[in-house]
Design brief:
The complex is a heterodimer of chains A (315) and B (395). Chain A is flat, with a radius of gyration of 28 Å. Chain A is an all-alpha fold. Chain A has a domain of 173 residues: MetI-like fold (Orthogonal Bundle), CATH 1.10.3720. The relative contact order of chain A is 0.12. Chain A is 71% helix and 1% strand. In chain B, the strands form 5 sheets. Chain B has a 6-stranded mixed beta sheet, with helices on both faces. In chain B, α2 packs across α3 and α2 runs parallel beside α4. The radius of gyration of chain B is 25 Å and the shape is elongated. About 5% of the residues of chain B have low confidence. The chains are: A mainly alpha (315), B alpha+beta (395).
C-alpha cells in the first residue's frame, strides 16, 4: 500500500508551551526611544503653533483690547459677525486673490521656463546660473524693501530713471500694488527655480530618450512628457504661493506702503494685523484669523488632493 | 529591415574611454547580441547607435547612409529600455500609440495599429491601464509594443529582461525569438547574461573594457573563443584557464605545470614559452588514478550538486580545476583524482595578451588536431614551428 510522506515533519509542541514574553517595563523601555526623539519637535509644535491657535480660537469669542489690566468680555459670535461686515474685507480679499494670481507667473511659469532653459547648461556654468537666480532668496525681505524703496523713489530712483517716467511708485494705487507683487515675485523666483530644477532632476532621463526615439520633437517632449511629469512640483509651488503669499508680502507692505495709499495694498493679512495690533481689537483679529485659516485650509486641501492625483508613482 | 554598420566608433568620457574603436557590420535581419560584463561599454555603444550619445569619433551607417550626427527621431530605430521607460501618466494604449501620435498619424490609423500590436503581444485587455497597474512582464510587453507599432527598421534593446524573474525571463526569451523570426527585423540586443546571448542571438559580439573581443555565432564564440576573456566569460562554470609551459619534449609538444602533463602532437624543436591552457569543465572526464598518463592529477576539494549535474572543484598543483558531469560524478572531497580530456578540446591563449594561439607547423610534420590549429598553409619563411598568436579582433 502507498503511504504519503509528510513534506517536513513539524516537531511536537505541547499546548501549554510558554512563550518567552518580555516584561511590561522592558517592552515600554524598548518602544520609548522613537517617541523621545520626537519630543523636542512635537513640543515646539505644540507650544508655538497649536497653543496659539487654540488661544486665538478662544480669544475670538471675547472682546479685549490687549491690555492685561482690562478684562476679556465674552461676546459669543459677535466678532465673527463683525468680521463678515467689515467694510475693507471685500477689497482686501480681492487684493489677496489678485496678489496670489499675479504671483503665480513668478512662482510657476517663469521658474519652469528658467529651469528648462538652464537644464541645457551643464557643469559649472549651471551652478553659477542657479546661484545667480537663487541669490535674492538670501536677502532679508526688510533689507531688500529698504533698497527697493530707494530704487522706487519718484524721479530720482533707479527705476524711474531707467524707465524715464515720473511714476510715484509707492504712492499711487496701481503702481504700489504692482511694486508689491513684482518685488515679492523677484524674491520668490530663485527658490521656485530651485524647486522646479529639483523636480526636473527627479524625472528619469529615459523618458525623454524614449520619446526622442519615438519621434517626438523637443517641444512635443516638453508638452507631452516633461510638463505632465512635472505637474506635482508645479502644484506644490502653486500651493506654496497660495499659503505663503501673506507671509512673503507682509514685510514689504509694512515697510514700503503700510497698506496704502488708502487701502490699495491692504490684503487680508495686513488688515488682520491692523485690527489686532493697531486698533487693539484682539477678539476681532482672532476671529478674522480663524476665518482665513479655515478658508485657506480648504484651498490647501483642494490643492493637496490635486497634488496626490497628479503624482505618478513610477518604479 | 536595416543594415547597421559601425565604423571605428569611440566614446570618451573625460579621461575614461567607454567604447574603443569598435567596428561591426550588422546585417539585415541579424539578431546581434552585445555581450559583456557591467561597465564594458555595451550600453554606451547601443546609445550611440540610437543617437542618444554622440560618439567622440567613428561613424554609424544605416543602410549605407551616414547617421552619426542625425538626431534619434530621424533614425528609423526603436528602442526598448532596461527601465522600459513607459510614460507613467499615459495609458497602455497611449504609450503604444505614442510613436504614431508624435508623427501626427490619423487617429483611426493609430487605433488600428495599436490594436494590432496589442493583440500580437496579448495586451488587448490592458489598454486602459496605467503602467503602474501592470506586472513586470506586462510592462516589458508594452515597451516592446511601443517599439514595434511603427514598424521600425531596427530594434535596439537594452537589457530588457533584466527586471523579470527567472521563469518569466525564460518565457520572454522564447517570445522575443519568435517575434524576431516573425518580423525578420534587425535587432541589436544588449545583455550581460550569456544564456540570453546563446539562446537568442544569430551573432554575438563580446565586449571587454570598451573593446570588441570577438564577433561570431553563439557556437563559434563558445567553441572557439578568440581570447581568454571570452573563454572565461562564456560558460557556467567558466572555462578552466591554467598557466602552463609549452615545450618540445621527445619530439612532441608538451604542456606542463605542477599536476599537469599534456603530451600533444609531434612537433620537432620549438622555443619553449609560457601559455594559458583552457578546457571547459564539461569536456573533462575522470579516469582511474592508476591510468598511465592522465592530463591532470589532483585532489577533490568540494563537490557541488546542481541537480542534474555535479561540479567538482579539484586542486591541481597551485591551480583549481573544475570538472562537470552528470550526477553522480563519483567523486568525494579529499580523494585523489585523475582527469583527462580529448586533445581537440584544449584551447591555448597567449599569457600576456590573452589572444588565442594556434599551432603553425613548419613543414610536413603530422597535422595536429583540427580545432587546436585551424588548417593553414605554413608560410615558407617560417623555419621553426611556433605558437602563433592571432589577433582577437576581427579583421
Amino acid at each position: 500500500m502507498f503511504v504519503t510522506l509528510a513534506a517536513v515533519e513539524a516537531p511536537e509542541v505541547p499546548a501549554s508551551y510558554p512563550a518567552a514574553r518580555p516584561s511590561a517595563a522592558r517592552r515600554v523601555r524598548r518602544a520609548l526611544p522613537p517617541f523621545l526623539y520626537l519630543t523636542p519637535g512635537l513640543g515646539c509644535l505644540a507650544v508655538w503653533t497649536y497653543r496659539p491657535l487654540a488661544e486665538a480660537a478662544r480669544l475670538s469669542f471675547y472682546s479685549w483690547n490687549l491690555l492685561p489690566s482690562r478684562p476679556k468680555v465674552p461676546v459669543g459670535l459677535d466678532n465673527y459677525a463683525d468680521v463678515l461686515q467689515l467694510p475693507q474685507l471685500r477689497s482686501s480679499l480681492w487684493l489677496t486673490v489678485t496678489i496670489i494670481v499675479c504671483l503665480l507667473p513668478f512662482s510657476v511659469v517663469l521658474p519652469t521656463i528658467v529651469a528648462l532653459l538652464t537644464q541645457q547648461v551643464r557643469g559649472r556654468a549651471n551652478a553659477v546660473y542657479r546661484a545667480l537666480v537663487f541669490a535674492p532668496v538670501l536677502v532679508a525681505p526688510v533689507a531688500s524693501a529698504a533698497i527697493w524703496e530707494w530704487l522706487l523713489d519718484p524721479r530720482h530712483g533707479g527705476v524711474d530713471r531707467l524707465l524715464g517716467s515720473p511714476v510715484n511708485w509707492l504712492h499711487e494705487r496701481g503702481p504700489a500694488q504692482l511694486a508689491v507683487i513684482v518685488i515679492t515675485g523677484w524674491h520668490l523666483l530663485g527658490f521656485a527655480v530651485l524647486v522646479v530644477a529639483a523636480g526636473l532632476a527627479g524625472i528619469n532621463d529615459d523618458y525623454a530618450a524614449a520619446a526622442q526615439l519615438d519621434g517626438a520633437t523637443r517641444r512635443q517632449i516638453i508638452r507631452w512628457i516633461t510638463l505632465p511629469l512635472l505637474s506635482p512640483t508645479l502644484v506644490l509651488l502653486a500651493l506654496m504661493t497660495v499659503l505663503l503669499s501673506g507671509q512673503l508680502t507682509f514685510p514689504l507692505i509694512d515697510t514700503l506702503t503700510q497698506g496704502g495709499p488708502g487701502d490699495a495694498t491692504t490684503n487680508v493679512y495686513y488688515l488682520l494685523w491692523e485690527y489686532g495690533f493697531k486698533s487693539f481689537n484682539a477678539g476681532l483679529a482672532a476671529a478674522a484669523g480663524l476665518v482665513f485659516f479655515l478658508g485657506f485650509g480648504m484651498v490647501a486641501g483642494c490643492l493637496v488632493w490635486l497634488f496626490e492625483k497628479l503624482s505618478f508613482h513610477d518604479n | 529591415m536595416s543594415r547597421i554598420q559601425i565604423d571605428g566608433l569611440t566614446k570618451c568620457f573625460s579621461k575614461v574611454t567607454a567604447v574603443d574603436r569598435v567596428s561591426l557590420d550588422i546585417n539585415h535581419g541579424d539578431f546581434l547580441v552585445l555581450l559583456g560584463p557591467s561597465g564594458c561599454g555595451k550600453s554606451t555603444l547601443l546609445r550611440m547607435i540610437a543617437g542618444l550619445i554622440e560618439p567622440s569619433s567613428g561613424r554609424v551607417l544605416l543602410d549605407g547612409r551616414d547617421v552619426t550626427f542625425t538626431p534619434p527621431r530621424e533614425r528609423d530605430m526603436a528602442m526598448v529600455f532596461q527601465s522600459y521607460a513607459l510614460y507613467p501618466h499615459l495609458t497602455v494604449e497611449r504609450n503604444i500609440g505614442f510613436p504614431l501620435r508624435s508623427r501626427r498619424r490619423p487617429r483611426a490609423e493609430i487605433r488600428e495599429k495599436v490594436r494590432e500590436a496589442a493583440e500580437l503581444l496579448e495586451l488587448a485587455d490592458l489598454l486602459d491601464r496605467r503602467p503602474r497597474q501592470l506586472s513586470g512582464g506586462q510592462r516589458q510587453r508594452v515597451a516592446v509594443g511601443r517599439a514595434l507599432v511603427r514598424d521600425p527598421g531596427a530594434f535596439l534593446m537594452d537589457e530588457p529582461l533584466s527586471n523579470l524573474d527567472a521563469k518569466l525571463r525564460t518565457a520572454t526569451r522564447g517570445q522575443l525569438r519568435a517575434l524576431h523570426h516573425r518580423l525578420g527585423s534587425t535587432i541589436v540586443y544588449v545583455t550581460h547574461d550569456q544564456v540570453e546571448a546563446m539562446t537568442m542571438a544569430t551573432r554575438v559580439a563580446v565586449l571587454n573594457a570598451g573593446r570588441l573581443e570577438q564577433v561570431g555565432s553563439p557556437t563559434e564564440v563558445y567553441d572557439r573563443p578568440a581570447s581568454a576573456f571570452v573563454a572565461d566569460f562564456l560558460g557556467a562554470p567558466p572555462m578552466n584557464l591554467l598557466p602552463v609551459r609549452a615545450e618540445s619534449h621527445s619530439g612532441r609538444v608538451r604542456l606542463f605545470a605542477p599536476g599537469i602533463e599534456v603530451a600533444l602532437w609531434e612537433a620537432g624543436d620549438f622555443p619553449a614559452r609560457d601559455i594559458v591552457m583552457g578546457v571547459r569543465p564539461e569536456h573533462l572526464v575522470t579516469v582511474p588514478t592508476t591510468a598511465e598518463s592522465p592530463m591532470f592529477r589532483g585532489r577533490v576539494e568540494t563537490v557541488e550538486n546542481l541537480g542534474s549535474e555535479e561540479v567538482a572543484q579539484c586542486a591541481v598543483g597551485d591551480a583549481t580545476l573544475l570538472v562537470r558531469g552528470p550526477r553522480p560524478l563519483g567523486l568525494r572531497p579529499g580523494e585523489q583524482v585523475a582527469v583527462d580530456a580529448a586533445a581537440d578540446r584544449l584551447h591555448m591563449f597567449d599569457q600576456a595578451s590573452g589572444h588565442r594561439l594556434r599551432w603553425r607547423a613548419p613543414d610536413v610534420s603530422p597535422s595536429p588536431p583540427a580545432s587546436l590549429s585551424p588548417p593553414s598553409s605554413s608560410p615558407p619563411s617560417s623555419p621553426r614551428a611556433v605558437f602563433a598568436s592571432r589577433s582577437a579582433r576581427p579583421v
